[in-house]
Amino acid sequence: MKCFATRCVAAALGLMLAAGNAMGQSYGSPTLLPLPEEPAPLGDRANDGAAQYRTVQHQVQLVNDGDENENGNESTVAPVPTPPPDSSSPGDAPVDRADAGGCAEGSCPADGGCADSCCGDDWLANWCGPGCNSGWFGSVGGMVLTRDRADGFWTSFESNNNANQILNTEDAESDWRGGWMISFGKWFGGCDPCGDSCGPRCGIGVTYFSTSPFRGSSTVFANDPLNNEWVSSTIDMDDALGPIQFPDGNEVDDYFDNSLSHSLERRDYIQSVEINLLSQYWQPNAHCQVTWLGGVRWFRFDESLLYSAVAGASTPTGSNEAFMDFDCTNDLVGFQLGARCDWYLTERFSLFVTPKFGLYGNHIQTHNRVYNGDDSELYDFSQDTTGVSFLGEVDLGASWQFAQHWRGFIGYKAIAVTGVALSDNQIPHYLAAADEFQQINSSGSLVVHGGFAGLEFSY
Fold first, then answer.
1. DSSP assignment of 222-287, as one string?
2. How many of the other CB atoms lie within 10 Å of CB of 25?
3. Domain spans, the chain
4. According to a count of CB atoms within 10 Å of the terminal CB, is the N or C end of the chain lower?
5. Alpha-carbon distances, residue 203 vs 134, 139, 278, 428 (angstroms)
6. pTM for the whole thing?
7. Which residues are registered as beta bridge partners of 424?
8. Which of 153, 432, 159 is CA-nearest to residue 312?
9. Which CATH class is domain 116-458?
10. How many CA atoms lie within 13 A of 146 on its CB side?
11. Residues 32-43: pLDDT tens digits?
């Protein structure tokens, strides 16, 4: 028993001595672990660098103040300081989509757009991203167009050599003219650029284009007046009583037969306005975007053809020039259906095709006149009618998206119209048949084609 008691006393003294040594080394008393800092929202990309350092502290650092410990004061405990936010450059690797917060779930960030790191897998993400904002879109551009050759009508031949026809209305071929186009519209909902990109979504769009008037002219001259080689008209200018006369008494054939020259001057003008409802779909596996469209359209084709002659062998009193003027206006109004398909070869470069087809009512007006240089009129007839026309249009081109909200485009346009009145088709074969001047021939067809280029935006 004495031995056991002796051992217990020795152990107690050893513990007291160890405690005294620990106090003599001046170690402060430990405190409670600090609470972890709340991590910044993952959507705040500006603080991504700092968020990498916001981890829960699992250790405590004891700070030893030598001067205060010598005086018996307690030491303090402080957590390891949080490193400052990383000011990484824009060229650093983007954050993975899984770490991008709402974008990983297919929702749009608070600013309404999508960065490449969020939507890099969706080729239309940048283009469709603005749909999360206002959804407005539009374009402006220029065109260079012309029309196909008109339906030919032989107007002139060489006097005393009827087989030698020398002037046709096709010779007054329309030239190339510049024009402009503008479009605007709005998308309504359906845009999820951070998930499955665009689709489906609906919208409405308006497009207008016009050109400067196409012009063409042609003139033929008498080959050898001294040998009676003049220019004469193919139009018969006699009636049962003989040569037809102007009200001032001058005969019409004195101007158009055995003439010094014959001339043709053409002027064509087109305008178009269309309003379409849109429905757009995106096929991510095929890198293809399809936009269906349907709506109403107004298309105008206005043409005038002036046939003139300068008297030669005969010398009428007063002015020595006479004219036949044929004006036609076609106003097409109707419904059309179509689509635009964009096939993306890369994330920014795509090819597109836009076919459209419609059935139209055509309100036709014509104004035909025959008069001379003294303003003495033989005929002055205006008439109108309504017919049915078909209009088809196709655009082929390419686009390049050079910024999130902007892309450029270039392409080729062709418009074909049937059931239209053309000035060439209103020329009569017999001047005496006044009823021919009052009839409207609407069996013509028209093709307008050319190139275009411009800029398109989406916000």
1. -SBGGGTB-EEESSB-EETTEE-B-TTS-BTHHHHSSEEEEEEEEEEEEEEEEEEEEEEEEETTTT
2. 8
3. 116-458
4. N
5. 12, 15, 5, 49
6. 0.71
7. none
8. 159
9. mainly beta
10. 11
11. 445 455 554 444
